[in-house]
């Protein structure tokens, strides 16, 4: 999944969730899909965190400021 885009990974995760919501899978299939979904979820979370760390935003006085994790705790992003 390394070469997949964020959107492709997210779409695959959504497919997995839908499949797991159905009762037609075997236990082995469910476990396999769950593991794939968990890995995708972790990859997506890391990608989001990396992107947020690069994010810049404009503050009220017009100054461009680089996003930091400390600031995210004080704001709803």
Quick overview:
This protein has helices at residues 6-21, 27-54, 69-72; strands spanning 56-58, 64-66.
Structural features, described:
The protein is 62% helix and 8% strand. Strand 1 and strand 2 form a beta hairpin. The protein has three helices and two strands, in the order ααββα. With 77 residues, it is mainly α. The chain has one domain.
Q: Domain count, please report it.
A: 1
Rg estimate, integer Å = 18 Å
Strand percentage lies at 5-15%
Strand order in space, largest sheet: 1-2
User: Which geometry do the CA atoms define?
Assistant: elongated
Poorly predicted ranges: none
Structural class: mainly alpha
Distance between the termini: 27 Å
Please work out how many helical segments DSSP would assign. 3
Largest sheet: 2 strands, antiparallel
Report the mean per-residue pLDDT as an integer.
Answer: 83
How many E strands? 2
Helix content: 55-70%
Secondary-structure element order, as H and E?
A: HHEEH
Write the layout of secondary structure elements.
Elements: H1 6-21, H2 27-54, E1 56-58, E2 64-66, H3 69-72
Antiparallel strand pairs: 1-2
Helix pairs in contact: 1-2
Task: Describe the structure using short key phrases.
mainly alpha, 77 residues, single chain
């Amino acid at each position: 999944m390394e070469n997949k885009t964020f959107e492709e990974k997210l779409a695959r995760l959504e497919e997995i969730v839908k499949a797991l919501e159905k009762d037609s899978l075997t236990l082995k299939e469910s476990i396999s899909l769950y593991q794939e979904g968990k890995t995708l979820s972790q990859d997506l979370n890391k990608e989001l965190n990396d992107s947020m760390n690069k994010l810049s935003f404009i503050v009220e006085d017009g100054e461009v400021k680089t996003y930091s994790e400390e600031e995210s705790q004080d704001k709803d992003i």
